[in-house]
Design goal:
There is one protein chain. The chain has helices at residues 8-38, 42-50, 53-69, 73-104, 114-132. The model has no long low-confidence stretch (mean pLDDT 95). The protein is mostly helical and 134 residues long. It is built from five helices and no strands. Helix 1 (8-38) runs antiparallel to helix 3 and helix 4 crosses helix 5 (114-132). The protein has two domains: 1-70; 72-134, no CATH class. It is flat.
Length: 134
């Protein structure tokens, strides 16, 4: 995805993604503040714990909407290939790390880190894929 979107689908994608990120930040700050200040328990604790994850689910929906709306087959193909590389790398790293945790006691990988790890791999795969087709 280019930094300055030139088509409507890319502009909508950026707007939706930034909106989801804004909600993520707001919900995360709210949850951290509430847990640290009020030591929330019960049903409210579950709600607050899940709240920051909702915009992340929204980000997955945003990517799906972009793929459905994007008319440029090249842009769609590059994103799909980047997503596949990201999925493959994330599954590989987390599987290897899981075995390391079980057998040699490396530090535990918190599950909320898997989503940013996935996007890290998507990001580093996009450049080489675009360069491949130039």
């Amino acid at each position: 995805m280019d930094c300055s979107p030139k088509n409507p689908a890319a502009r909508r994608y950026q707007y939706r993604l930034f909106t989801a990120m804004a909600f993520y930040i707001a919900f995360l700050v709210t949850a951290v503040w509430a847990f640290s200040r009020y030591h929330v328990t019960g049903a409210l604790a579950y709600l607050l714990a899940v709240l920051p994850a909702l915009p992340i689910v929204g980000m997955v929906v945003v990517v799906g909407l972009y793929l459905a709306e994007e008319k440029d087959e090249f842009q769609r193909a590059v994103l799909v290939q980047s997503l596949l590389w990201g999925i493959g790398a994330t599954l590989s790293v987390t599987t290897v790390w899981g075995f390391l945790e079980n057998f040699v006691q490396v530090p535990h990988l918190d599950l909320y880190l898997v989503f940013p790890l996935f996007w890290f791999f998507v990001g580093i795969s996009t450049g080489p894929l675009k360069a491949k087709y130039k």
